[in-house]
Amino acid sequence: MYTGCKINIVANAIDRHLVSDTRNKLALIWEGEPGDMRTFSFFALNREVSKFGNVLKALGAKKGDVITIYMPQIPELIIAMLACAKIGAAHSVIYGGFSVEALAERISDAKSNILVTADGGFRRGKPTDLKNIANEAMRRSATILSCVVVKRTGEECFMESDRDFWYHDLMSMPIASAKCETEVMDAEDTLFILYTSGTTGKPKGLVHTHGGYTVYTSTTFRYVFDYQPEDRWWCAADPGWITGHSYIVYAPMINGATTILYEGAPNYPYPNRWWQMIEKYGINILYTSPTAIRGLMRFGSSWAERHDLSSLRLLGSVGEPINPEAWKWYYEVIGQKRCPIMDTWWQTETGGFMITPLPITPLKPGSATKPFFGNEIDVVDESGKSVKSGEEGNLVIKNPWPGMARTIMGDPEQYIDKYWKQYKKQGWYLAGDSAKIDEAGYVWIIGRIDDVLKVSGYRLGSAEIESALVSHPAVTEAAAIGLPDKLKGNIIHATVILAQGISGSPELENELKSHVNNEIGPIAKPAFIVFADSLPKTRSGKIMRRIIKAKVLGEDVGDLTTLED
Ligand code: PRX
């Protein structure tokens, strides 16, 4: 805790660069999927952020409010985040791939009055339709009073008078003055909330603060990626997730780095899109997920080999364990055996890297290696005893660290319950992952121990998928599990029980898949739906997803004596 200290992350991410040589350096290089490009120096970014900060104030935003941002990957997403932080409002960014219900429930939970969105973005050559999804979400959750809309695709969308305003109109009005004071914040004031999936159906809004998050993200970035002032850094994530918040937006900007943002799909129009970007912008460090690597690897090496990737110096991986085959391809074909791979283990909750190599660390493919400076990490059994080396157990963090989430918005009990209860006596943080530590002290992450799935590196709760299924009138009960998948890490398998008188059919299966797609988003769409008469449950009514999984995979279902039926 940094109690009593004063700071604003924007004073570090922008303001201090305006009085140094960094002022005219590029802060952001953005490329749209259609190939359009925009760049912002720190000076230019400051103007946009200040102007939009004043627009938000004119719409009634004040210190302490939560402003929801639901955007494609365009510069205005970053401008909106920084503008919120600058005026002391917390941002709540909702991933642009989420759909109506996911957006509506996050707006309601945060009691947000202002929504910043866009008409859409481009993905695989087609415009996506964000504003119409936002319209339906605003209908379901009535807290939004003003909605600012960036025109990106130019597609038609419904604008409600007195509530919806075009970004460019507001930014050209006298209210959008380029002079905006950076609000002085207490170090423990909320910088943002970011929703993530847990074991309940309701997403948790984790709270990160101005002080600790500034310190932790900027330090981890500086050391793990050996950041040098001339580097061009590309974190190919979406700013809508913690990876993007920490390592596209805040950490690079605090370090005065040039950060890259790309709008679209890695394989559009061809699977060389990313390699073309590395060549074109002379990117030195690439940070991405195993899913993205596996997705590009399947097109073969020739797409990468036709590009000059000699600017690359370091590579990074995040989000799920990287399998040795993908590691090898990334190392040999993309890094040309020259670039160490920083396999960084961390979470939305941790704010920044927790277990990670440094560029000098000897690597073992598939291991995130050792704790970052200051962290004490262990793998323990249920009682807290360290397991023997090579044995599986619960991953715990034994010390506090600056970037840790401070609470869950509106639900401090759940925060204690979920992360701090099991090892209360010892005061340790329970990460929710199982892991092993080998004899050399290297940490090997195995996967989640709770009902959280990692689909293409995206974090989803079984319960969220189940509640989306049950919101369909034909379904009375559902159980969602993750099945191993070579490409995506996990794919979703759902078992559903239908309402009386309704029988299963391929049509209904497809309808339920699109229902989940429309409620949560394409990432949550089940790959399989099977109809059943009952679900395995304990006598207290808890669905035994472990048993369904074993059954589907043809494995031993284990002890069934605790089952109700
Ligand atoms: O299971 C771990 C996995 O991702 C989870 C956290 O997900 P999220 O909050 O969405 O944050 C992802 C980006 C930081 C963890 O509990 N995970 C993350 N990084 C790794 C990983 N699993 C293995 N290796 C990693 N490097």
What is the gist of this entry?
29% of the residues lie in helices and 24% in strands. The protein has 16 helices and 28 strands. Strands 10-9-6-4-5-12-13-21 form an eight-stranded mixed β-sheet, sandwiched between helices.
Estimate what percentage of residues fall within beta strands.
Answer: 15-25%
| Total E-strand runs | 28
Ligands and ions found: adenosine-5'-monophosphate-propyl ester
Sum up the overall morphology in one term: globular
Please compute the radius of gyration using only Cα atoms: 23 Å
Uncertain stretches of 5 or more adjacent residues: none
Biggest pleated sheet: 8 strands, mixed
**DSSP helix count?**
16
Walk across the major sheet and give the strand order: 10-9-6-4-5-12-13-21
Q: What integer is the average pLDDT?
A: 96
